Amino acid sequence: MTRGAERPGSPEQPVVLLVAGLADLTVSTLGSVLGMVRGLLRRSDTAELVAEAEQDLIARGRLVLDQYAAAPPAHLEVLARHAMARQAGDGV
Questions:
Q1: Helices 13-42 and 46-69, packing angle to 10 deg
Q2: Taking the CA of residue 61 as centre, how many other CA atoms within 13 Å lie in the half-sphere pointing to its CB?
Q3: CA distance 45 to 39
Q4: Cα(78)–Cα(84) distance, rounded to whole angstroms?
Q5: 59 CA to centre of own chain
Q6: Closest by Cα among 56, 74, 58, 78 to 66
Q7: Using one digit for the tens of pLDDT, what is the confidence trace for 43-92?
Q8: Distance between CA atoms of residues 9 and 78, nearest Å
Q9: Which of 84, 64, 65 has its CA nearest to residue 76?
Q10: Three-state SS string across 36-84, please?
Q11: Own/partner long-range contacts of 60-68 (Cβ < 8 Å, ≥24 apart)
Q12: What is the pTM of this model?
């Protein structure tokens, strides 16, 4: 059926099409995931892969925490250090 030959549908038609598309996407994604899991279970080095994945996640977590948890230096402390360096440079 071409787009020009479509009959005007009910207002619920887009919702039904959306749900059908989402269901199809879910089924195809689950199929891919199950195939990947089956492939991993057949490997002989699964324990090593899991250990490497754990180490990678730990390293990634450290990077994220270092990036967001590091507090910037105190503004007044920075100003005091600049003033002290300026005084030491002037010989006062």
A1: 120
A2: 6
A3: 12
A4: 10
A5: 15
A6: 58
A7: 888 889 889 999 999 999 988 888 788 777 788 999 999 999 999 887 65
A8: 68
A9: 84
A10: HHHHHHHCCCHHHHHHHHHHHHHHHHHHHHHHHHCCCCCHHHHHHHHHH
A11: none
A12: 0.38
- Among 23, 19, 43, 21, which Cα is nearest to 31's? 23
Residue with tokens 């919702």: 15
Structure tokens at 20: 């059908």
How is residue 92 annotated by DSSP? -
Separation between Cα atoms, residue 68 and residue 70, nearest integer Å? 6
Burial code of 33-68, b = ≥16 C-beta within 10 A, e = fewer? eeeeeeeeeeeeeeeeeeeeeeeeeeeeeeeeeeee
CA gap 80, 87 in Å, rounded: 10
Residue 5 has pLDDT above 50, yes or no: no
To which residue do tokens 């892969």 refer?
A: 49
